Amino acid sequence: MESSNLSIFFFCCIFLISSGLIVEAQDSPHHHHRREKEETDDNGFRPAKLFVFGDSYADTGNVRKSLANSWKEPYGTTFPGKPAGRFSDGRVLTDYIAKFLGLKSPVAYRWMKLFGGKKLRNGVNFAYGGSGVFDTLANVLPNMTTQIDFLEKLINESVYTTLDLHSSVVLLSLAGNDYGAYLATGGTIQGLPSFIPLVINQLSINLKRLQKMGATKVIVTALEPLGCLPRFTGLSSYQQCNATRNLATNFHNLLLQQTVAKLNNDTNSSTFFILDLYNSFNTVLEQKGNPQGDLKFETPLKPCCMGISSEYFCGSVDEKGVKMYTVCSDPKSAFFWDSSHPTEAGWHAVYTTLKSSLGQLFQFS
């Protein structure tokens, strides 16, 4: 592996630093919430709520409106029809997991004060685009530990209870921002083999904490094939993934698999479950669609929304407000929306490949 290539790889892993993202954590509301009764039946676990932690693959609106492209056109054009804080043209991973569980997508943490009450019955989404298990951007993004702190505060305030967490599903999304931040703040290529286990170890600490807080069903994402993101495939005119970058991804995922297996073994439980985004992304990209054949992506590595040059991004405008990006005619024909994130159709295709394994986990479909 060439050091220069690896440096570019890990520097680019952080999705949102290049867009100048700055986020403020919001205080929790002080209203109370009536806990719903846990629902179970003969077919298996029926979750009462969904609690979400992580980054832009799961964020549904925690980033401040003025500080991220996810609140700018053309984001949100497919759903809900205007920018709404999702890093896509429409729905993201959280929305599809909620759909599978028979829940509405949980309210974003920042909007609890405005959309509390009945909205809280579905849980809360604490994910912030650009975050990681460690601090990723000058300590202004709530890392995963801080996000879990937010939930703990809500429990302490009796907005939720330990029993709420016990009867719910927890989703943790980790898409690679820690590695970009590591090199951007002075880390070296030579130090990466020692740093990647630190990321997994911190994730393990977070997982143990959630279990101690009462979580019994925790889904954690495997790292998607980073070498297939458009920011890298652009070097081959969006024709092929970068194998070197995907090898690095595999190292992360191997350690994750070993860690989750050990956690379940040590606690004699099946609390933790890996959502295999690596293989599901690859399946859709290789087949240029989903296995069912109802979604097709002719050039799956090419994003729908692109800056007109390397200095611009999807959603960028110049000082006069002129659009500095292009958008494909039909987002449903593209797997990727921008340089790092799938379209709604892309996430739908990934979801269809994961549905059977989710069904086995929860023993219902």
From TrEMBL:
Signal sequence range: 1-25
GO terms assigned for molecular function: hydrolase activity, acting on ester bonds
A Gene Ontology biological process term: lipid catabolic process
SUPFAM superfamilies: SGNH hydrolase (SSF52266)
Pfam families noted in UniProt: Lipase_GDSL (PF00657)
UniProt KW keywords: Hydrolase, Lipid degradation, Lipid metabolism, Signal
Gene3D superfamilies, per database record: SGNH hydrolase (3.40.50.1110)
Entry keyword annotation includes Cell division: no
InterPro entries named among the record's database cross-references: GDSL, SGNH_hydro_sf
Entry's family note: Belongs to the 'GDSL' lipolytic enzyme family.
Protein name, entry field: SGNH hydrolase-type esterase domain-containing protein
Organism listed in the record: Erythranthe guttata
Organism classification: Eukaryota, Viridiplantae, Streptophyta, Embryophyta, Tracheophyta
